Amino acid sequence: MPTPLTREDTTVNAITAEGLVKTFGSGEKAVKAVGGVDLVVPEGTVVGMLGPNGAGKTTTVRMLTTLLAPDAGRAIVAGHDVVKEPQAVRSKIGLSGQYAAVDENLTGRENLWLFGRLYQLSRQQASQRAEELLEQFNLTEAADRTLKTYSGGMRRRLDLAGSLIVHPKILFLDEPTTGLDPSSRLDLWDVIRERVADGATILLTTQYLEEADALADNIVVIDHGHIIAQGTADQLKAQIGGERIEVVVRDAEALDTAEQVLNLGSGGQCVRDDHTRKLIVPTHTGSKGLIQVIRDLDEAGVAIDDIALRRPTLDDVFVKLTGRHAEEETPATEPAGRAS
Predict the structure, then answer these.
(1) In the CATH scheme, what is the code of domain 242-311?
(2) What is the annotated signal peptide range for this record (predicted)?
């Protein structure tokens, strides 16, 4: 059973959730999109929620941002209950969803001005804030063009700018870089880092393992509506062991010999892939182990095309936890047409 929320939880942590549940449909057609999520996001940190499409990420964000009411559980965001005090929560958060929430018939400047007015800024304040954000997101030259002429990356930048119109204490970014080119993605990473440096708290959902690794102080892995692991990137990687040596043998006929050599040094822990002619063996001695493997293979007369010492990646973690890669979709956990 999760530990009940305490007063300390709601003041030290920007976001605290306990046992969040959301089910769509009823009867035999009911689908539990989120099945009891417990989540803590300390103030001033970035927590990355990592999982494939359909895992329950977006549904969780929608509950935390008051867009969906949970069927069970409780969540406190910025010191306010998301069900009992939704207006207070909304006044202190920013949200950038998977799809740019902008009006394509308005210009970039007009969109940001409108966001400011909706947040009850004066006309002058809304105009001033729009100018600041247009400059920050490198959109000044396109400010007076309608969004119909914007690229996908420009729309995403404008949408993120809109979520920052009133300097929110807590920012929810739901797959903010999906569909962006690598350059635009790196630009958004810089913006996220700037927000954190200014004291913001960020909950970031993503399918991109390198994004979570680069930005998040802590990572939660969600699958089939449940959080299945959490910790820092290094802590998660440590769960699957230390460094490994990867060897690509030149000739397939030498695989048996190479495997025997590597098994002798590893106590039988060598993993073999005949298709790629690759052998993988764990090592606890780093570069010394690499040098020893090279010597042993040379003495055995095994020629190699490649050899490298590698640390575990988040992809390795994800495969071990879920049995598949992050880019693969989770079987449907919500009715068609709903993001997860």
Answers:
(1) 3.30.70.100
(2) none
Q: What counts of helices (H) and strands (E) characterise the chain?
A: 12, 14
Q: What is the pTM of this model?
A: 0.75
The confidence score (pLDDT) of residue 1 equals 45
Which residue ranges make up each domain of the chain? Answer: 7-92+168-237, 242-311
**pLDDT less than 70: residues of the chain:** 1-11, 99-100, 241, 323-340
* Alpha helices (runs of H) in the chain, residue ranges in sequence order: 7-12, 57-64, 86-90, 108-118, 123-136, 152-163, 182-197, 209-215, 233-238, 255-266, 287-299, 314-322
| Amino acid 269: pLDDT | 83
Question: Which residue in the block uniquely carries the two structure tokens 């966001």?
Answer: 115
* Residues 6 or more apart whose Cβ sits within 8 Å of residue 99: none
Handedness of CA 215, 218, 222, 228 (dihedral sign): positive
pLDDT for res 177: 84
Q: Would you state the pLDDT for residue 339?
A: 38
User: What value does the CA radius of gyration of the chain take, rounded to a whole number of Å?
Assistant: 24
Q: Would you state the pLDDT for residue 134?
A: 95
> Could you check whether 7-92+168-237 and 242-311 share the same CATH topology?
no
Pick the CATH number of 7-92+168-237 from 3.90.550.10, 3.40.1160.10, 3.40.50.300, 1.20.1250.20: 3.40.50.300
**Residue with structure tokens 């949200």?**
95
